[in-house]
């Protein structure tokens, strides 16, 4: 079997990434019988990167592999990605969301999902809001960024894989500043709810940033969208 089909092996490497996060890359190399005269098949997975970023890493590894034809290359490829992951991610950061959306289109079989996040605070509010709006737009997510007193909520609806990509961006990108004014990642975010959108839920058509002066106004926003239960279950405890 191995003689006719070549061999496959998995390698996991941890890379210190540009966002100060350790990125665990799961690489699968399949070496065909004709290796190293032909390049290996490579698949790339990582919980810290979006699907589009994983695709970019794979493309760059295959580019490198072509430069090493006729010589064993796997070890060189691993060393190369450890040194260059930062640059690959930087290049893909500006286009990753668009590519993710375009490559997969709409996956109706996944259904539409909803995500409710609670943020503890925003120090650089204007910049933070702009970033959230851009991510929502790039990933074709609709919903609300809601401010009521000290409560900050993000409610998103969209494709399940886009919701997942949004969460990765929210956790790994430097979106705010700390008390000394230095850029920092969101460390005080909590996922209140992640669920499939039900028939009684109203779909948001756009993504909007809204401020509410009373809890009643905020409650009305949820009720209008058919999310009365979601509100009563998750929002009042935040006031305690």
Automatic annotation (TrEMBL):
InterPro entries: RWD_dom, RWDD3, UBQ-conjugating_enzyme/RWD. GO terms for cellular component: cytoplasm; nucleus. PROSITE patterns: RWD (PS50908). It is found in: Cytoplasm; Nucleus. Gene3D superfamilies: Ubiquitin Conjugating Enzyme (3.10.110.10). One of its GO terms (biological process) is positive regulation of hypoxia-inducible factor-1alpha signaling pathway. Its main location: cytoplasm. Transmembrane segments: none annotated. Keywords: Cytoplasm, Nucleus. Pfam families: RWD. Residues 1-88 form the RWD domain. It comes from the Eukaryota. Enhancer of SUMO conjugation. Increases SUMO conjugation to proteins by promoting the: binding of E1 and E2 enzymes, thioester linkage between SUMO and ube2i/ubc9 and transfer of SUMO to specific target proteins which include hif1a, pias, nfkbia, nr3c1 and top1. Has no effect on ubiquitination. This is RWD domain-containing protein 3. The gene is RWDD3.
């Amino acid at each position: 079997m191995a003689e006719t089909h070549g061999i496959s092996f998995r390698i996991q490497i941890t890379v210190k990434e540009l966002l100060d996060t350790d990125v665990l890359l799961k690489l699968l190399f399949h070496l065909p019988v004709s290796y190293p005269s032909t390049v290996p098949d490579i698949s790339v997975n990582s919980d810290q990167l979006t699907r589009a970023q994983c695709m970019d890493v794979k493309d760059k590894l295959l580019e490198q592999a072509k430069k090493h034809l006729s010589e064993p290359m796997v070890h060189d490829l691993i060393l190369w990605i450890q040194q260059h992951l930062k640059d690959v991610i930087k290049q893909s950061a500006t286009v990753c969301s668009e590519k993710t959306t375009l490559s997969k289109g709409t996956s109706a079989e996944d259904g539409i999902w909803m995500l409710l996040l609670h943020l503890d605070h925003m120090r650089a509010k204007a910049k933070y809001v702009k970033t959230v709006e851009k991510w929502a737009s790039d990933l074709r997510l609709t919903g609300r960024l809601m401010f009521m007193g000290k409560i900050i909520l993000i409610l998103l609806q969209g494709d399940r894989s886009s919701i997942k990509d949004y969460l990765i961006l929210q956790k790994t990108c430097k979106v705010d500043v700390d008390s000394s004014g230095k850029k920092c990642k969101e460390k005080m975010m909590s996922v209140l709810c992640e669920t499939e959108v039900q028939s009684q839920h109203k779909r948001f058509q756009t993504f909007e940033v809204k401020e509410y002066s009373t809890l009643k106004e905020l409650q009305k926003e949820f009720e209008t969208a058919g999310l009365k239960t979601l509100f009563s279950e998750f929002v009042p405890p935040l006031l305690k």
